[in-house]
């Protein structure tokens, strides 16, 4: 059954990027500090991770049928050049289709009618697999809409001191979680998985 | 040798209290959801924790010679009635000594001349033991002053959606940590200890 999962590399103080889009070299150090190579859709960008992180990533890749990303993440990655680095289709939640991009291909799709429609589109692409939410704004929105089943925190030992938080100030809450239902230690990352209590 | 440690029960989104001082029943649930009783200085307030959390707390109590707390924490606990619940002396960093309190006793002391003096006073009381910093503002201040050696995060599976963050927006940074050098799973808490890279 499809689960909606939200995940990110997060600093100890809760940020998914530091001030002025800084800090990625720390947040994503664990993608490059191990000796297990995981090929990606971009031959120039393999991951080099520790064995525990490799098992964690492989399971995530196997289980995920589609991502939903926000426009900000799409813009800073330039849409991964049209195909997500992990070879998983993605749906972009946006106000408008950016210039020069088709509305929908085999590998991506723009949805301009809101988060619930974006998640529905991702569910159609995911089949029996999971839908993964990336990016702070949509994760918080989806949590408040009761749409998030699991949260994957890749907790990184750095204090960024500011930036974009994984979770935005919420209208409602608190939201209780169960777990960690899984805890895996990599090199400069602790992979923690929680279930959202419904 | 005395280490300066900073610790708190922290939500997944980084808060040490929720909006309008809410959320403590979630942040401190782990103080009461186990079957090991730890007596405190207040006979009406024993802790009831799991065995892993009990070992974690006992080691912290044994290793800590003095706390430094901010005025906010002092006020909301009413200074623990003049003696900290864990039976450990504390130094309060404040602008002025509150009415009705002596400046200094066997169990507490007010310091009005800044954080460095407060930590120096706590070091004198701590002897060879550690100084523990509690409260968001002084932890962030001490981190920026290069005075924090270790950070203890008691990570609680709840998203509070707002409130007082453990780490405030910082002037400088990022601050890299080492670890977790210790990771202990309790009931509704993950005790994570990090060393601050100097």
Automatic annotation (TrEMBL), chains A, B:
Which InterPro entries does this entry report, sorted A to Z?
Answer: DHFR-like_dom_sf, RibDG_C
Could you tell me which Gene3D superfamilies the record lists for this protein? Dihydrofolate Reductase, subunit A
Please list the residue ranges annotated as the Bacterial bifunctional deaminase-reductase C-terminal domain. 3-168
What is this protein called in UniProt?
A: Dihydrofolate reductase family protein
